[in-house]
Every structure is written in C-alpha cells, then in structure tokens.
Structures
1.
Amino acid sequence: MTMRLSTVILPVRRWSRGGREVWQRAEELGFHAAYTYDHLSWRVPFRDGPWFGAVPTLTAAAAATSRIRLGTLVTSPNFRHPVTLAKELISLDDISDGRITLGIGAGGNGFDAHALLGGGEEPWTPRVRANHFAEFVALLDRLLTEDAVTYEGEHYNAHEVRNVPGCVQRPRLPFAVAATGPRGLRLAARYGQAWVTTGDPKVSADGTPEQSRAAIAGQIERLGAACEAAGRDAGKLPKILLTGFTPDRPLDSVDAFVDFAGRHAELGIDELVLHWPIDGTIFEADLSVFERIAAEAPAQLTA
C-alpha cells in the first residue's frame, strides 16, 4: 500500500501574486491532491488578512493544472445551501475534467457561524449543526446524482431543481466526510468515498503524539463500527488525516515525516494532507524541507 501525500493551500494569496504558482508547484511536486479551506474567513491571524473564496480559487486552480486532484477541506452548511453548492460543484467538476473531491463537515462555531446571523440570533448549537449536516449531505447527494430534485425538509428545500448534465465523475464527485461523532460517522459510512479527521482537539493542546495516535485509533474503530452497521467494509473506505493539529512535528525533516507517516499508516490512515507553509502562522515551516518531503518521502512510504 502506498500512502497518498496531499497538501492544503489556504486561499490567502492574490492569484496574480503567487497564487497560481503555488497550485502549479503542488502539481509539479507530485502531490496526490491539493485542497483549500472553504470559509468566509478563519481564525486569527487570518481573520483580518487576505482570504479568497474556495470555489473561484479551485476553478482557477483547475484551469492552471491538469493532473492533480483538487477539493475542499472542508465545506460546511455554515454558509452554504446544497442547491446552489451542487450547481457550483457540477460546474467545477466539468472545468477540472473530473478532478474534484468535496471535503465536507458539520462546521464549527467560528466566524462563519456568525456571518449570516441577524440581530438577536444565536449560532447553531452542536446538535443543530449536526441536524443541518445530516440533511445537507443527503440532499447534496441527490442533487449531484439526479437530473431533477424536489425536496422539502426541516432545514432545506429544493423545488424542481435541474442539474443536467451532472458530474463528470459518476455517479457523482466523491465526498470526503469529516466526522468524529456518532452521527457524522454514520454519514461517512453511508455517503463517504473517504473519511477525514484532524485528530482529537482535546489531545492536541496538551497531549503527546502517543496519546494523539491512540485517539485517532479510537476514531477509526468507531468508524469501523459505523461501516459495519451500514453493511460496508471499513477497510475499503480511505482515511485522511489533515495534519497540523496534532502534537507532532512532521515537517521538521524528511526523517521526522517518514516516521510520522509510518506510525499513522499502521493505524489505517491512507492519505496525509500537509499545510503549504505560511510564514508567521501556525503553519510556518521551512519550504525547502517541505518540498523535500513531497519529493522524497513517498518512495519511502511504499509497502
């Protein structure tokens, strides 16, 4: 088995001032996929700096590349509606000639959760976010696989929505479902073509790498139970770790990364996603080491 190595490129660069080149460089380095965040804005220090839209960025990246897979890590219902998102995704899948993966999650309580609120409105609770997420994923699945959809739900409606000709990828573009709770894991087991984790945030702040791996192993075990309940082989569901949020330092050197990757491969992780370095942030790293990891590590991760 070969561990897939991908990157996530935050949408912080003007396209004419280095944005295009980063995506093209990701393809040159041989990354399996290049993803981007889908937020209106993100945490400090990014909150008050440049931040561009995910779908236009991916559209431009699709036109500037030809081989690398592209996608979101992750889209959420916080400010998206499945009807309009489906139309954008079908268009993006067409422009990229079938290279799009939709990373999708329930969203959090950050800036996106407040952006569309009116006076006196409260952000969604975790339960309400989970309710939206379940309905969002199920309706999006229909919108991307059926030519015409009518649906009336608790949170979303669709009236005679047409999505012809549908996705280039059949029956639709793949979903990579980010989830660790019971309801989200059931969605991953039912609708996902991959599962995504960032590890356990409770461990990331004060825990050790060993505790982090134990937490991820527990998540994978619970995913397996959800897959079994859905009549699905969990071993055939790719498992993605978005790095940068565990108490590890995999970008210190090629050897450090290979050790990190090997230990997570033993847990069942199939794809590691590395943040493209950004100076002065939590994703700061030596770009030359990062590029060496991309170029040299995959050959060492083939079993």
2.
Amino acid sequence: MRSIWKGSIAFGLVNVPVKVYSATEQHDIRFHQVHAKDGGRIKYDRICQECGKSVQFADIDKAYDSPDGERVILTDDDFDKLPAAEKHEIPVLEFVPTEQIDPILYDKSYFLEPDSASPKAYVLLRETLEETERTALVHFTLRQKTRLAALRVRDDVLVIQTLLWPDEVRAAEFPSLEDAPSARPQEVKMATSLVESMSSEFDPTEYTDDYQIELRKLIDETLANGGEKVVHTEAESDDDGEDAEVVDLVAALQRSVEAAGKNAKSGSTTTTPAKKAPAKKAAAKKAPAKKAAAKKSAPAKADAKDAEAKGA
C-alpha cells in the first residue's frame, strides 16, 4: 500500500504523527469503451460549448447553476477561503460511546500507520480508546474537503472512518408501512425458529463474489484462445509527503489533563467550539438521552483527573 496523506492526530496537547492509507479497495474488473469496428480506444475531449475549442484541465474552473438560471464561477482561490481544518492535522473533537454512532453514517475507511521514530503516542491513543470503549470524533481534511470522522481501533491499528452529515441520510418515510398489520404471535414464533436454525458466527471469508470470479474466468479463457482483444496499460506513480514530530508525551498529557480540569470547573466545554458543533449535532440525533447523561458526568471525571494530576 502507498500512503495517500501524512499529518498528525491532535490529541489534547499530544501530537500523534500518522500516515493514512485507504483501508478498502474495489476488486471489480474495470472496462474501457472501444470502437466496436476496430477495437480503438474511445477518448473524451473537454470541449467548451461557447468557443468550441478543446480546454486543458488546468484551465477549468467550477461553476454552480442556480434554480433561476444564473451561473456562479468559482476558482481555486475562492475554495481556499472556505473554512477547513488544517490540511495536515486531525483534531480530536470529543470522545463518544461507540454504540451511539449509527452505522448508516459510516462512509470511507482509512488505516493509520505511526509516522515517527517512536510510536509511543500512537500506542497510547490506541490503548486508551480500547480501555474506555469509546470512539474519537475528529475532523479529517482530504482532497480539500473537511469531513466529520470516527477514529477507532481495529486489530491493533487506528482506523478513521469518515461520517456522513446527518442531513445526508434520507428520511425513510413509506406510507405503505403506516397501516401495515402486526405479525401474529405464532408467525413471530415460527420466524424466530427459522432465524435460530440459520444462525452462526459471522465469517466474511465464507462468501465470494461469484460474478467477478466468472467474469475473470471468461477473460482468461479469451486470452488463452488468442485473438485481437489484448490491451496493454502503463502503471502510475505516486509521491509521499513530509515528516512530522512528536512532543514530550508525559508533559503534554499533564498539561492536557490540567486544561480539561480548568475547563470543567469554569463550565466551558471546548477550546474549538466552531469545530465541535457538527459533532454535537450528529450525536444528539442518535441518542439524546444518553448524550445528555454522558455530558453531565464529564465535569466530575475531569475534576477527578485534575485532583489526581495535582496529587501526583
């Protein structure tokens, strides 16, 4: 795998340098469009509808067409002015119970590899998430787009999963379900019996993509028989970014605990309210009652940590 992003996780006053890798990949066989007559590759040209000339990608801007028929053209400079998290920083907004995140919000997954001579800070964050059984809500900027994301642990590796914003999930409103009759007790009993007879532990390796297997077999047989349908492609190259550094771990943690204690005593919630707003909105829609309880216990926990830190 090749890293697609380098930066650091901002965990209080602790920096955790990381490299980011795409955690998933598509194994679907990709096809190109060709001329049926001679097998020639079909290519697309960017033609301007106004002047009729071919336009290079570097000369292309983005436009929005309003419902009234007016067009707004935006350049790269315009997009750079928009609010976004630091391009090479993943700030932790808060830690929430993992079960409060609805799986429908999960989008793209990324593996995080420690990018430091000493992975101590990485291991600390990983073990803390496992110990507390919580997920960190973070801001993650990739390809000039800032997303809300969940930072969790999978097989001893930190994983970031970008989250959909609440308004990106459609409301499931089906009138046909409003007057649907309830299932009879004997029907539920029989259905439950069927579920139990078909129950087992989940093992994803037991399932295969039969369509892709048969498609690959068809292609291999065609290649083995020869013919005029062989196409050669060239590999692409990627570049890596710069390195990062980790601060003194114990001192940074001590200052983070003291800062959290002071914020709790003064009644303040966070030093970055603008970034935290989306996280509150997402969690509140999922389980407001649990969320409120968690928030009420936060000051007490923070005071205990503060007292412990002063005693040390």
3.
Amino acid sequence: MSSTRARTEGQARPAARKSRRTEAAGTAARGAPDGRPAPEHHHSLLRQMLVIRRFEERCVELYSSTKIRGFVHLYIGEEAVAVGVNQALGEQDAVVSTYREHGHALARGVPAEAVMAEMYGKATGCSRGRGGSMHLFDAGRRFYGGNAIVAGGLPLAAGLALSDRMRANTRVTCCFFGDGAFAEGEFHETANLAALWQLPLLLVCENNLYAMGTSLAREHAQTNLAMRAASYGMPAWTVDGMDVLAVEAAAHRAVESVRAGNGPHFLEAQTYRFRAHSMYDPDRYRAKSEIEAWKGRDPVRALADRMRTDGRLDDKTMEELDAGVLDEIDRAVRSAEDAPVEPVTDLLRFVTSPPGSTA
C-alpha cells in the first residue's frame, strides 16, 4: 500500500484516551477483529460483500421489470470499500454517503428489507419511501443519508464532525464520495476547514476512475488524489479498493488516529464499478477490455479465493453462504412488495406543520 502523508507542525490536538472500541479496532487491524478468530471474521466480510452484490443484482432485475423506478446507481465492484471501512467504525460514529449508497447503507447495518422497501417507495422503507435509491437514511444507525448532489454530503459531514469536536466527543464522522466530487468546491472547502479546525473527520474517496462518463485523466491534471489532499495538511494515503482486508487495515489505522485527536484523514480507495454510471447510462465511454480486466479483480471472488487457499472456505460452505444471502434478499423483496405505500393523507407530514401547531 503506497502512502502520502502530510501534517502541519503543531496542528494535532493531544491524543484522547482510547476507547474500548478503538482498542478493539487496533486488534482487528492485526487480524483478530473484536476478539473473533480471523477465519470467522473473513466469513463475515465475505457475507457482507455478498449481501451487497446480490442485493444490487436483484435491483437490476427489479428495475428491468419496472418494479422499482427512478435513478439507480449500482455499487457492484466496489463492495470492498464500504465493507472494509465500516469495520473500523463504531455504532456512535456517523456515516455520510453519496447517491451510490446501497452498499454503504447495507454495510452500516441498515436491514436489506428497509433498503429494498425504500427502493419500492414503500412506507416501511428506511426513509418511509420518500427518498428512494439516492436518499437512504437511518438516524438510529447514524447513517446520515445518500445525497443526490455530487459532493453535497461533504459540508454536512464537516458539520457533524464540528459538533462532536465542540462537545469533546470521541466520535468519528466518515464521509464517502467519488472522484468526481474531488473536482467540486465543496471538497476543497471541507478539506481546508477540517484541517484548520482539526475535525474528527475521515474522508473516503472512492476513486472508480470515472465521474459519470468523464475519466479521471480527462478531468484532473494531477491524478494523485491522496497527494493533493495531503496538501491541506492532513494525513492521506492510497489503498487498493478491490482488497477488503487492505481497506479494513487502512481504515482502522485512519480511524484510530482521528479518534485520538489527530484531525482529519483522507483515504483514496482505488476501485472500479463494473456496471454503468446508472441504469440510464449506455456506458459507451469505457473499453470492454478495461471493464473485463477490472472484473478479474472482483473483490468478492478475491477474498473467497484467498480463503480457499488458506483452507478457510470450501465449495459447500460457499454455496451455503450464497444460498443464505439469496434467501435474505428474497425475503426483502417479498416484504417490500407486501408493504403499504404511504397514505395520501400523510403526504404533507414532515413537510408542513399541522394546523394550529406552534412547532
């Protein structure tokens, strides 16, 4: 894993006392997460990535049959980033996401049934069916949503982190965004203020090489995003976003440092989306050979192959694992199809105050 680090002298605040969660995170980075044996942990990582993969594949089928509508941005190929980063985060930490956030929500622990119901626009969805694919939200799990605006989540994440810093909390806010967001002013404003104020913020750039249909090389004169982020005075490095174990280790390292009071950190996860930008995208800007080459580094298959080599996985176990995941997705679809839509009488709920209300 290559690294680019930069920190301005005297900026870091005194290290805060490590929490039990932080100590557990350090253990995880060494190969025994949360006290569990590594084989069990690897199975957990594999299952989480499979849940995202099978959920997304089912969304393709449902979209094609017009059971779910609107914009849908698939996360297939990038599963290792969401799953790896979330291993380092505690329940009290916050996550801010993008419009390609199905994987982030599922990795954060939002139930597949709640996410699928939201895709259907049903009242049992995590956003009561009001947000759909691009606006998943679960305040109870401190998942502060997808955001349909490119880079729109970055200032929100800075605000959450500033709130924690002012309250002297040891919580961390993690903000996911794509390489396209790096070209927006919100990123640079957020990075500058986060470093200036030493906010407990982890910036995770999912660099999948394309901002919609524009390649990174055609958009940025300097494509080393970690180096550019380091220019703001924060530790920054690049990690292989197709390797869930590498992402997990990098995330633990970053989160431990942020939680200890060392200010914001930046991770550039180099990854790739196997599908088009959205279901509307004809995907004519990428060579098929490039897509196939990246599919050869499939993060789900890569971990499964590593586990087989280590004697931690056999074909029967893999089949049982996959069957269990497919059953979970089937239940989520059935639940979504049976769920009610929000009644017309509630359409103004959460939008306007009730008559006579002083709220």
